[in-house]
């Protein structure tokens, strides 16, 4: 039964792309994205850092954490921006989380993006995976939704000409970071996005202005950006994000949700905890000789593996930052609870598109 389902969805997606040609980003939004490339390297260089926030309930109970890192990377020999964002935790003792890895051009055009969301409930689970990649002038999008034992596959494509001003789950995080650094959101910032059914919709950004927020025991002035995601079937969804002067995310909340993501400690204090500590080598000539013989081989192998899996550095860095923020007495128990949601995730399937 899966083949007809995939065929129907793919056909629907193709026709939807034709019907939605009139749904476009505003000229102001397209101009803003185009202007970013001319800011290199000053503006984008300021965006290359990591954020780490904790997720808490209205009552102050810890529910998990959220992190996002931006760095320069390469994709098929093309210099680009690599963004990795991750949130995980538990709501009502049910593990849940989201991971986004995006490769973006300097003007925030999506070259490739992976999105994964999961919720593990008693007796069944929900798992959503979406992959989009530019190929032959098209944005090809594949989505797999697993609910218990039921698997639904969708595949659509849009011509890149129809996706001018596209903002995704990954690129919107960097876009807001840039707006926060400028401390200004121009008017008429209307972009296009994709909804849960992979249809084109509008998403808008507007300025919330300045307000006072407590971070790490200090009262600071933060700059707010609102993102509104429209829907053909449901009410619009709004996100309010507030940023420090240097672009670091201070708080993030979905309007109407009892859950808030907030910064516990100023980034400057957190970053000091990661100063390099020199290692004292034991003077063992035989071990040193063996190490030097294999040094280049090991470095090349490790570097190759890390390039293929950029999520490794992000995952380890996120854990260390959260560990140092919380400073638990029982590190082993803390590590167990931190990585427990990952144990509930099914093993990744082999990617037929991987080379």
Automatic annotation (TrEMBL):
Protein name in UniProt: Ciliogenesis-associated TTC17-interacting protein
Gene that specifies this protein: catip
Pfam families attached to this UniProt entry: CATIP_N (PF21772)
Stretch list, region Disordered: 1-21
GO cellular component: a single term: nucleus
Ligase as UniProt keyword: no
Keyword Nucleotide-binding part of the UniProt annotation: no
Function: Plays a role in primary ciliogenesis by modulating actin polymerization.
Primary location group: membrane
Domain of life: Eukaryota
Subcellular localization(s) per the UniProt record: Cell membrane; Cytoplasm, Cytoskeleton; Nucleus
Residue ranges annotated for the Ciliogenesis-associated TTC17-interacting protein N-terminal domain, each copy included: 28-258
CDD domains the UniProt entry points to: DD_CATIP
Taxonomy of the source species: Eukaryota, Metazoa, Chordata, Craniata, Vertebrata
UniProt GO BP: actin filament polymerization; cilium organization
Keyword terms, alphabetized: Cell membrane, Cilium biogenesis/degradation, Cytoplasm, Cytoskeleton, Membrane, Nucleus
Family: Belongs to the CATIP family.
Source organism (scientific name): Stegastes partitus (bicolor damselfish)
């Amino acid at each position: 039964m899966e083949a007809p389902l995939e065929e129907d969805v793919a056909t629907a997606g193709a026709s939807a792309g034709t019907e939605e040609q009139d749904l476009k980003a505003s000229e102001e939004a397209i101009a803003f994205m185009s202007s970013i490339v001319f800011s290199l390297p000053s503006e984008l260089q300021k965006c290359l850092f990591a954020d780490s926030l904790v997720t808490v309930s209205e009552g102050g109970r810890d529910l998990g954490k959220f992190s996002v890192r931006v760095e320069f990377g390469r994709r098929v020999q093309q210099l680009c921006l690599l963004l990795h964002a991750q949130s995980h935790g538990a709501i009502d003792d049910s593990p849940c989380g989201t991971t986004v890895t995006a490769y973006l051009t300097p003007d925030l055009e999506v070259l490739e993006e992976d999105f994964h969301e999961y919720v593990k409930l008693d007796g069944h689970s929900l798992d959503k995976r979406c992959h989009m990649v530019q190929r032959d002038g098209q944005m090809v999008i594949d989505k797999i939704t697993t609910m218990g034992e039921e698997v639904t596959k969708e595949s659509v494509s849009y011509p890149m000409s129809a996706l001018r001003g596209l903002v995704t789950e990954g690129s919107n995080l960097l876009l807001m970071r840039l707006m926060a650094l400028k401390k200004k959101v121009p008017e008429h910032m209307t972009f296009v996005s994709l909804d849960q059914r992979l249809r084109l919709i509008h998403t808008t950004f507007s300025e919330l202005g300045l307000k006072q927020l407590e971070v790490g025991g200090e009262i600071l002035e933060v700059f707010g950006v609102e993102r509104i995601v429209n829907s053909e079937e449901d009410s619009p969804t709004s996100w309010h994000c507030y940023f420090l002067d240097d672009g670091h995310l201070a708080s993030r909340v979905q309007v109407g949700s009892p859950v808030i993501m907030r910064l516990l400690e100023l980034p400057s204090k957190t970053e000091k905890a990661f100063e390099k500590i020199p290692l004292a080598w034991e003077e063992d000539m035989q071990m040193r000789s063996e190490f030097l013989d294999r040094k280049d081989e090991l470095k090349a192998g490790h570097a190759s593996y890390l390039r293929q899996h950029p999520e490794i550095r992000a995952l380890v860095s996120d854990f260390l930052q959260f560990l140092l923020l919380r400073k638990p007495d029982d590190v082993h128990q803390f590590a167990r609870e931190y990585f427990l949601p990952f144990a509930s995730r099914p093993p990744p399937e082999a990617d037929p598109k991987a080379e």
